[in-house]
Amino acid sequence: MANKTFTIPDIGNFDSVEVIEIHVKAGDSVKTDDALITLESEKASMDIPATFDGVVQELLLKVGDKVKQGDNILSYDIIGAKETKPVETKSAETKSDSTKPNEPTNNNDDAYDVVVLGSGPGGYTAAFRAADLGLKVALIERFSSIGGVCLNVGCIPSKALLHMAKVITEAEDASHHGIKFNKPEIDLEKIREWKNNDVVGKLTGGLSQMAGQRKVTVIEGYGKFTGSNSIDVEDKDKKTTKVNFNSAIIAVGSKPIVIPNTPDHANIIDSTGALEFKDIPERMLIVGGGIIGLEMGTVYDALGSKITVVELADGLIQGCDRDLVRPLQKRMEKRFENIHLNTKVVEIKADGDNLKVTFENKDGQFEDTFNKVLISVGRTPNGKLIDAELAGVNVDDRGFINVDRQFKTNVPHIYAIGDVIGQPMLAHKATHEAKIAAEVIAGEKVEYQANVIPSVAYTDPEVAWVGVTENEAKQNNIEIEKSAFPWAASGRALSNNRTEGLTKLIFDKQTKRLIGAGIVGVNAGELIAEACLAIEMGADAQDIGLTIHPHPTLSESVAMASEVYEGTITDLFIRKR
Ligand code: FAD
After folding, report:
1. Which residues line ligand 1 (CB under 6 A)?
2. What is the C-alpha to C-alpha distance for residues 335 and 326, in angstroms, rounded to an integer?
3. Which stretches in the chain have pLDDT values below 50?
4. How far apart are CA 232 and CA 276, in angstroms?
5. What is the C-alpha separation between 378 and 312, in angstroms, rounded?
6. Within 10 A of 381 (CB to CB), how many other CB atoms are there?
7. Pocket of ligand 1, candidates 252, 258, 294, 532: which has the most ligand atoms within 8 Å of its Cβ, to mutate?
């Protein structure tokens, strides 16, 4: 018997977490994995399990104490010799055996059951699900903060800034109906701090903590395949760790497309640069009228920049029906300086700190000068940057990796998920795929069966759509019937002073089931979820219309669009044909 002290293990990036419960007392016998105490951070509560079989001698903390990694929990005596190593999050370590051949090492003793390459929403979800299913998992990420594009430089920081924008524009709108606010004072540094620490930091810190709780080994460094069962991870000091696996999941995501011949200039930025939020340029050009560019335009417009958007195609947000984009475009035309459609950027030239841009459309060329240019013309997959060929995995010319419905690549024990396997490049697609890949590896008989993936532009107003669009139906000769409810007839939209919205439903002509939906208006991104569920459940207009929706809400517009289809609507008068 030996008297030992048990301390708080690695709990992620937290240094003051409250003890909210103690599950043992002096004299208790505990077994490995028995919960000793429960801690609670702002993000989650977590049990700290024993990593020994023994008898508690003395408790060294109490409920209400604030603790961090390394603080004492209790002293104990070991029973027998049983003691396991606590969970840890580690940086890439060097293995001295660099002469090991790069050949398949399947079923090595040191091999992980699953190695996940990339820690975005696809990667961390896959790693966590696999660990929850009892597999030994490593998660490789080149950056010190896990969470990928979505948490660090995508979905989450953009939504934090869009929230700021919403506060400003709502205050402006209020002046039209009797409440006047002074012009806002904008403290860029504070906004940045809030976005980085209170939003992104909390989420990514929470992920690290959950990785620890699940015993997922996080390896920091850049991973490349060296064989069909091994990846080399190079850390920032150029040290290499060989990681062996029985199965791997490629979740390396994507990066912004760079327009060739664009000069290297501090004021030409991509979405990551725009989210850094260094300044508020007086005049800003957004190259690309897709979702990401327009969301950034919404932010900088609210903060005072004069925005110009240039788009090669004949409309903003391609892929979405025009009647849904129209209310957004109308509002943007009022707020933005210019929206150039059917126009391409021919040249961007540095002019000191400014940028002289030459455009071309059917009428010829014209020039304009901007303080900042955001290039937002799409994203390209990272598939070509990981030596996948050394593992035998096929990557196409554009960098995408082809997979089957279980997310297996052409090498059956190597899977791929998320942006790297194709469009739509969206976080919720990546997480859904991630769970399936992890479950397949764990031996479950599952495959991808979702019917639809929703898309949302978190602009003002928001535009959201799911399933078959009217355009698609026309192009593919799908027989549909549609109905729409204009928000001008919605009490809630009127009360919000935002009546430009529209809820549109698309039904299969034969089965009468809902197969598509589109919503434009405030909170459309939240509202679309009902249509997603209805489509997955095979609901028809009657199912939706007869579901009692709360009043007064914008969600009623979904029921009312169904009532329009059924001919039972009373909130509109529709003349009978
Ligand atoms: P990623 O999130 O790209 O993660 C891949 C990870 O792999 C990264 O952390 C990368 O560093 C790491 N990695 C790559 N190669 C290696 C390597 N060789 N070794 C180690 N690590 C590697 N989607 C939405 O659904 N909703 C939104 O609102 C939304 N907003 C967005 C806003 C912006 C500005 C941007 C840029 C994107 C937005 N997206 C949004 C898209 C979303 O971020 C992506 O679809 C999602 O992050 C893809 O997840 P993923 O797991 O496939 O890859």
Report:
1. 117-123, 140-143, 148-150, 154-155, 158, 222-223, 251-254, 271, 292, 382, 386, 418-419, 425-428, 430, 458
2. 14
3. 85-106
4. 31
5. 13
6. 24
7. 252
Cβ 521 vs Cβ 501: under 8 Å:
yes
User: What does the DSSP 8-state code read for residue 14?
Assistant: -
The pLDDT assigned to 42 comes to 67
Note whether 310 and 286 are within 8 A (CB).
Answer: yes
**Max CA-CA distance within the chain?**
90
- pTM for this prediction: 0.84
pLDDT tens for 150-167 read 999 999 999 999 999 999
Residue 121: CA count within 13 A, CB half-sphere: 20
How big is the CA angle at 114 (ends 123 and 404), to the nearest 5 degrees? 70
**Known catalytic membership, residue 177:** no
Count of alpha carbons within 13 angstroms of residue 535, beta-carbon side: 23
What pLDDT does residue 262 have? 93
Contact 75, 58 (CB under 8 A): yes
What pLDDT is attached to residue 90? 39
Segment 98-147, tens digit of pLDDT: 333 333 344 566 899 999 999 999 999 999 999 999 999 999 999 999 99
Position 3 scores a pLDDT of 77
